Amino acid sequence: MKKKFTLTSFRLLCVLSITVVIICINLDAKASTHQLAFAHNFPSNNYAKLIASMDQFQTESNLVKGNLIANDTTMALKHANEANSIFYWDLLVEIVKQDKQVGDDLKVAVGELRNLTSLYANGSMNTTAVEKQKALQRVDEITKNINNNIEKIISNTATLKQSEESNFMNVVTGFFSNLISGNQGTNSGNDGSIHPIRFAELLDSVLRNYGDAFAVNFDMTDMTNMALNNNNSNTMDHSMMNMSNGNSQDEGNNEHIKNMANYQSANGSAHKLLDIFNEELQPIITSKNDSSNLSSNLENGIANLINSIENRAAPTEIMTIVHSQIHPSLVEAFDLQILSTS
Q1: pLDDT tens figures, 233-262
Q2: Does residue 13 have a pLDDT over 80?
Q3: Do the domain assignments include residue 72?
Q4: Contact 54, 91 (CB under 8 A)
Q5: What is the pLDDT of residue 174?
Q6: CA–CA distance, 269 with 164 (Å, rounded to integer)
Q7: Same domain, 222 and 157
Q8: Which of 71, 138, 221, 263 meets the CB 3.0–4.6 Å disulfide criterion with 213?
Q9: Are 305 and 231 in contact (CB under 8 A)?
Q10: Is there a single domain that holds both residue 199 and residue 268?
């Protein structure tokens, strides 16, 4: 009797697994009918999106100190407000779920960082050299606290993702999914790491911020916009940018930056991409004993992106680096699946 019950249970589990897979496939098919066909549209991963938001939160927090040192209190306050917004809208609930103490510590840190910066910006703080040094030291302590706590949550999140993938039900579902889909890949690359998709998510943030910095009226994350630039890049650049003066000067000129805070965010996030490459991606590529130039190609692409951003390159030049150099290298290095609606 016990043996019969076990066999029945196993059959039921298989039926449920197949049902779940079919439902997911149907949902994906329905969603794809409403989805625009982007050239590099990587599979969504909630954990990767969460970590990428943490990367942006760190970037905005760190930019506060740099602007205070430069005596640009207005810009520092903008980044403090952006860090506050990212934390409360995108991170707080998930962080508290993982570690309430870390969540409470970060709430205090974010609040104090914003208050200190606001006092600076409003002229409510003594501006003597001694007082300024004390304030900067405190800001440095706060940002270090934020970075340490966020790194802890990033590590926890990566562990949670690995634990979820080891769940038996997910293994069974994945097995049937691979049978149906032809084993076309996973959401995070063939190594099972969350970091390649995290990298891609943050790279999209760089493009969005850079586009906002120059007030372009097209989506820089959409590679298909580059197709409009086959014959004359200058024509596309000037016709698609919301420029008040309407002249044809070099778009890399500082006067065409409409939002300096977004420009700084794009630059800061680009440097964060290099950190992720050095700490997470390069070791994975190296572990494969790959004799190709995948690692160096990806690293060169990131370096090219950083240099071009720092030189205020035209938005379409930034798009070209990302879509024609970095994305192909990332896809090849980690066997990433690219979603397609065709």
Answers
A1: 544 444 444 443 433 334 445 558 999 999
A2: no
A3: yes
A4: yes
A5: 52
A6: 28
A7: no
A8: 263
A9: no
A10: yes
pTM for the complete prediction? Answer: 0.78
- In this predicted structure, the answer to whether residue 321 has a pLDDT above a threshold of 70 is yes
Instruction: Show which of 162, 187, 203 is a domain's final residue.
Output: 162
CA atoms within 13 A on the CB side of 79: 31
CA atoms of 270 and 201, how far apart (whole Å): 12
Structural domain containing residue 70: 63-162
Mean pLDDT of the 275-300 span = 90
Backbone phi, psi, residue 178, to 5°: -65, -35
> Residue with structure tokens 């493009």?
207
Residues 224, 308 within the same domain: yes
Residues 213 and 127 in one domain: no
pLDDT at residue 133, rounded to an integer: 85
The tokens of 290 are what? 């790959």
234 and 291 share a domain? yes
Domain assignment present for residue 242? The answer is yes
Kindly state the percentage of the chain with pLDDT values over 70. 68
Query: Are both 136 and 199 inside the same structural domain?
Result: no
Q: For residues 114 and 106, give the distance between their C-alpha atoms in angstroms, rounded to a whole number.
A: 12
pLDDT at res. 264: 98
- Is residue 270 a part of any domain in this protein? yes
**Among candidates 213, 264, 272, which has minimal Cα distance to 51?**
272
For the cut 50, the answer to whether the pLDDT of residue 278 exceeds it is: yes
**Amino acid of residue 169:** M
Tokens 């790194």 — which residue? 151
Total domain count for the chain? 2
User: Would you say the C-alpha torsion 281, 283, 287, 293 has a positive or negative sign?
Assistant: positive
Largest CA distance in the chain: 85
Q: What pLDDT, on a 0 to 100 scale, did the predictor assign at position 11?
A: 57
Does a structural domain hold residue 18? no
